[in-house]
# Entry
Amino acid sequence: MARMKFLCDAERCTECNSCVTACKNENEVPWGINRRRVVTINDGEPGERSISVACMHCSDAPCMAVCPVDCFYQTSDGVVLHDKDLCIGCGYCFYACPFGAPQFPSTGVFGSKGKMDKCTFCNGGPEEDHSHDEHRKYGANRIAEGKLPLCAEMCSSKALLAGDGDEVADIFRERSTYRGAGTGAWGWGTAYNRKGV
Amino acid sequence: MKCLSTLFLCAVLSVQVFAEEAKTVDAQAYSQVLKESYIEEDKAVKLPEKLGYSGTPGTKFWRGVRSGISYQTQVRGDDTGVFINADGEYWRLYRNNVATVGGTIIGLSLLLFLLLYLLFGKFGVEGGFSGEFVQRFKLHERILHWGTASLFIVLGITGLILLLGRYLLIPMMGTETFAPIATVAKAIHDVLGPIFSVFLLVMLIRFIKDNFYQPGDVNWVLKGGGLFGKHVASWRFNFGEKVWFWIIFFAGTSIAVTGYILLFTDLVSGQRQVVELSHILHTVSATLMIAVLFGHIYMSIAMDGSLLAMTRGKVDKNWAKQHHSAWYEGKV
# Structure
């Protein structure tokens, strides 16, 4: 059983934001906090690509490494979660995270940002599974029900994949092979001097 | 027999020749195709430069996602348009390094001065104390000093809890006990910080006049500040005290300025490097000041009769003659 991973297929993502909406709805995320976002590169130009970004549940998570109160932990599936009761709202995890996954409820006077909130891979938190407290603080716990995160389930083009890392990688590999990588392979033009081909 | 073998040989050879010919033809055709498909730079179809040569996103395209450019996104917020923040990892590594190195420096400094005090005890005054006093610090100067000092000590302790708590306190008490302590420490640190900055500003203005270089300061250093027996003259503040003042001036100012940036990060949204840099500067300056502070405290206790200057505002005349003779002569 490999680690749980997200993978967003940039060739399929249509920027529909279904993943964003699904996440907000399922986890009852308050106003102003967005656990997931879709970033579109070169919007409107040829070669536009969109990617859905949320917590990537890093194997060696920088947020976990920098937290002054050590409130992060990692499940056996590789999902990075944190304890809101321990969080002091310092914001260090936001600065350490390459993906900007940690979100804070308020800009706060005197640096009081509030408790950090982020994508939990629909795996809840340290509270007891399916308890009222867990739902209120962390949102849905679909993994405990044997389901996968709703963002990936709701993705309209199956661009966003979530689940067992090996299986996700297999699916993406098949897609890349089927789509063909020839002229799409990075460095093709440089290697074969085929400008314009 | 001979005839058959010759025939056979001819057949084999001829097949080979034909095969060679066939291979040659294919190779020729292939290289022709290659030559024809090669397009000169100026005749090539112009594709957007950022895509790279082949028309689908390549390295040129994807390189941008790490560069901190803010792209299009429906989600409004701090840096939401940025896909990957590459510098956050460096900040984390710097911070953890500063924490370990800085913590070690503070620990070593504390140990050093404790050791010095245990070894050499108090340094008395030549001829003992006279019992007659002369005023050194006025009341408002003492209030400024103790106000700044006590604020700094509380800020230093709460700051160190945030910097080193994970490495030193959590192993002792666990995360459940430490988290409320850290919450309170952060709240205190955030509130006292601006108050400290005001005290610091006023104190720096009040004391700067006597802390510029004066003739004789270098001489004081070269003579070891009177440590090796021979008396050496000094003004109101000797060279060591002046160095301490300027450390407070630069490190303290940088702590205050970076502290304000860290308190109001939403005012610098979209410039996360500013916050990251401020955090590192804040930590480095604070660590430096705490380490040298132990020296300041040591001096005030080990030099017998010095502490009285800040508590009561007056010093013994013999103390003044030994430690700050030029200043004393100016007073009487």
